[in-house]
């Protein structure tokens, strides 16, 4: 079962020839979820061979251009391709006011419906759920209302041991109950624990957290405890304290501190300022605190446990 993150954009507000603005796509069991949508995101979808038709949900962290100005172009591309399935956009309530007139002007007669879902950036809340996953908002501290997102895969049903089906002559109802986690009570009152009847489905539930633009905020850590893939912005280096304070961004070292406190499995850092020609320094500093750190580049793919 696939759980794969693709980096479509890894730079901050000013794009470069090598790095587009912020955009990630998470593939969960062949369903695509986009997080932020900087300019040119539809180009990156093509370039890295992600199927437009499987993208039905977009999550926007905040209303700064490098995180959402790609939406009009992406919607226009969907329309030109004759899309018919609904598109769901999760964002600050003001996004619809800003975006919809632009879409109506440039994309007359949409072939599909757009559903806007308001997200309160001040609240830690479950904002989306389906059969395979749930998504939680994470309040952040930036110059405008901003939130991150925590994607948590739901556990799959346990596998029941075949020999136990035969040994206890289990009915269909009992099998369904056991697979859902229940113990088995025999006619004589004996209780057979679930762990003796089943094996865990593999892979175990996986998770990904996207921490967008924010000042250093340790309170993030307990909300994403044990996360498999943690992306945390690391716009500047530590020696640029003035810019960090003025722009409400984090450094590579601060991102690593959050990863350490959250007991993350792997840290991905990005949203690099265009003033740096390389992210090697960011990665080196972060690894001093959290060794399993990668400074991301456009096109990189990550799957927990691989």
Quick summary:
The chain has 2 domains: 3-156 and 201-302, 4-Layer Sandwich (Metallo-beta-lactamase, Chain A), CATH 3.60.15; 159-199, no CATH class. Helices cover 26% and strands 26% of the residues.
Sum up the structure in keywords:
single chain; 306 residues; alpha/beta; Metallo-beta-lactamase, Chain A; 2 domains; 7-stranded mixed sheet; 10 helices; 26% helix
SSE inventory with pairings:
Elements lengths: L2 E7 L13 E6 L2 E5 L5 H7 L7 E5 L5 H4 L2 H10 L6 E5 L2 H13 L7 E5 L7 E4 L3 E7 L7 E7 L5 E2 L1 H7 L3 H8 L4 E2 L5 E2 L1 H4 E2 L7 E5 L17 E5 L7 H7 L4 H11 L3 E5 L9 H10 L3 E3 L5 E2 L4
Parallel strand pairs: 3-4, 4-5, 5-6, 14-15, 15-16, 16-17
Antiparallel strand pairs: 1-2, 1-18, 2-3, 7-8, 8-9, 9-14, 10-13, 11-12
Helix pairs in contact: 3-4, 9-10
**Strand content bin:** 25-35%
The CATH topology annotation of the largest domain reads as: Metallo-beta-lactamase, Chain A
> How many domains is the backbone divided into?
2
Number of helix segments? 10
Query: How does the major sheet shape up?
Result: 7 strands, mixed
Helix content: 25-40%
Shape: globular
**Low-confidence segments, ≥5 residues, pLDDT <50?**
none
Rg on CA atoms, Å:
22 Å
- Quantity of strands, as a count: 18
Supply the helix-strand structural class.
alpha/beta
Name the CATH superfamily classification of the largest domain: Ribonuclease Z/Hydroxyacylglutathione hydrolase-like
Strand order of the largest sheet: 6-5-4-3-2-1-18
Please provide the ordered H/E string of secondary-structure elements.
EEEHEHHEHEEEEEHHEEHEEEHHEHEE
Task: Report the top-level CATH class of the largest domain.
Answer: Alpha Beta
Q: What's the pLDDT, averaged over the residues?
A: 93
Terminal residue distance: 13 Å
